[in-house]
Amino acid sequence: MKVLAIHGKEDLHWEDRELPEPGEGEVRLRVRYVGICGSDLHYHFHGANGEYAVKEPLTPGHELSAVVDLDPSGTLEPGTAVTVHPARFGAARAGLENHPYLRPGGDYLGSAAGFPHRQGAASEYLLVEAPMIRVLPSSLPLERAALAEPLAVALHAVSLAGGVAGRRALVIGAGPIGLLVVAALHRAGAAAIGVADVREEPLERAASLGASEPSLVGRDAIVDESFDVVFECSGVASALTQAVRAVGRTGLIVQVGMLPNAEIGVNLAPMLAKEVILRGAFRFSAEIDEAIAMLAESDALDPVITHVIPAADAENAFRIARNSSESAKVLLQL
Hints:
By secondary structure, the chain is α/β, with parallel strands linked by helices. The protein has two domains: about 1-150 and about 285-334, Quinone Oxidoreductase, Chain A, domain 1 (Alpha-Beta Complex), CATH 3.90.180.10; about 160-280, 3-Layer(aba) Sandwich (Rossmann fold). The chain has helices at about 40-45, 140-145, 150-160, 175-190, 200-210, 235-245, 270-275, 285-295, 315-320; strands spanning about 1-10, 10-15, 25-35, 50, 50-55, 65-70, 80-85, 85-90, 105-110, 125-130, 135, 170, 190-195, 215, 225-230, 245-255, 275-280, 305-310, 330-334. The strands form five sheets. Strands 3, 6, 7, 10, 11, 18 and 19 form a seven-stranded mixed beta sheet that branches. A six-stranded parallel beta sheet has the order 14-13-12-15-16-17, sandwiched between helices. A two-stranded antiparallel ribbon has the order 1-2.
């Protein structure tokens, strides 16, 4: 079988591997589509995602759709359309009963956080534990189903705001996650959805998903204290400073974008006088089931997918995915 492997910084290979045989409790999938995520871009272009460096060939990918190839238990028929919850949670810990994704010791498909690395889904065949599998509704095309994982991230982030119906929300950063946060806010009944980005094209995509107040960074000013809740989706320090200014008194900022693992210059002073809450968002728990249902309802989120490129042409796919003017979500086809 063919597998995509990152050997280091800008060292990407489409290489041969042995077909894996499922062990007890495992199912072998024939992968069809894999989304390129921000962490995948970091692994490829920098050889590391934050503090997690590539120390052995890493197969990226945790956003996927597939069909069942072999289930030794006989529970799932060959050809069944599925996606996968990419997390294996760590051991139970008091206080985290409702937050299994925060338990220490878990892992995630396509991650170099541990060693040996947890290999990902950019492979023609993939072994996963049966509980990770989610069977897809017949109305959900496999291409769109590859959005289930990032949409679950967006739904989780919106849920952390504690209810957005009738509230003014701002999304900073209109990359794929930001776009899906816009869609989740629209579905949840936000009264108005502002979106800010450094490029025009992402703003246009956000408008098609329900954003009503676009702001081009460097051209359009965002009025201080003009939003009830802000979702920072870019991971840029200056954007967090902007979020602190834009949010209203007693408002909430949800930090969705991955900030660099370094000392960064952020002005948090306005938080004090406004009693603002700054809350981190990390992955998700059961929201992937809500995401699948949402994706099956309509084709409204199809504009998030801008490119579908054969995995054998992965270097080109990663180049396109890196350019937010050119692309939103780029899928690898296997």
